[in-house]
Specification:
This protein has about 210 residues and is of the alpha/beta class. It has a single domain (about 5-205), classed as DHBP synthase (Alpha-Beta Complex). It contains 5 helices and 9 strands; from the N terminus they run αββαβαββαβαβββ. The chain has a 9-stranded mixed β-sheet with strand order 7-1-2-6-3-5-4-8-9. Helix 1 packs parallel to helix 4 (about 135-145). The radius of gyration is 18 Å and the shape is globular. The model has no long low-confidence stretch (mean pLDDT about 90).
């Protein structure tokens, strides 16, 4: 048997992963720019996503999940510096919180702007998570806009932790499904959720 150096095998594997990731990013960008929906691995669980600034795209997500529009959605950004693009005012503590956490953290902010009206709550608050996993970060950076992230399930049912647990109805209902192999590259863990007010005071919604 021919000996193949471990480094060579590792390098080849990394090239394969990079090739898959770039291909999937390109495919997602095409769909998102056309107002479509994607099924993709986030930093927590598999999610249904779309352009968070596109009202019609967001409607597709609600329809697929059979979710009432009074329940707002979470959106993802790749950089905390971009919070000011979508908030009238960002409490300074928000930047400290995002900078100092090493696990997924969703923050509910007051007074959103520049987002589809049906992605935000009735009081104009919006839940945002700054994504740190490579696939999502690169996708959002390339897209240049926030992406919706909502669990890949029918509203009221248990969110699937892995791709194999996602209902065929959801898989068939989106416009594009990201290669499931990319979902194996991260550790599944729930997001902590806190809510901020304009004074920078916060309360924990989910630990």
């Amino acid at each position: 048997m021919e000996y193949v150096p471990t480094f060579t095998v590792l390098f080849s594997t990394l090239l394969t992963i990079e090739s898959i990731m770039q291909r999937e990013i390109d495919q997602c960008l095409t769909v998102l720019r056309a107002g479509g929906t994607i099924l993709y691995p986030t930093d927590t669980i598999w999610g249904i996503g779309c352009d968070a600034t596109n009202y019609q795209a967001v409607q597709k997500v609600y329809h697929l999940k059979k979710r009432v529009e009074s329940k707002s959605l979470i959106i993802l950004l790749d950089d905390a510096a971009r919070l000011t693009d979508f908030m009238v005012f960002v409490p300074e503590i928000a930047f400290d919180l995002v900078k100092n956490v090493d696990t997924p953290l969703t923050i509910i902010y007051p007074n959103s702007k520049n987002l589809a009206s049906n992605v935000v709550a009735e009081d104009r608050s919006i839940a945002i998570r700054i994504i740190k996993t490579e696939f999502c970060s690169r996708l959002i950076r390339a897209f240049g806009k926030p992406i919706v992230s909502t669990s890949a399930n029918i509203s009221g049912t248990k969110p699937p932790l892995t791709y194999k647990n996602i209902l065929p109805e959801i898989i068939d209902g989106v416009d594009y499904v990201v290669d499931p192999s990319l979902g194996e590259l991260r550790v599944v863990q729930p997001s902590r959720i806190i809510k901020l007010n304009e004074n920078g005071e916060f309360r924990i919604i989910r630990k």
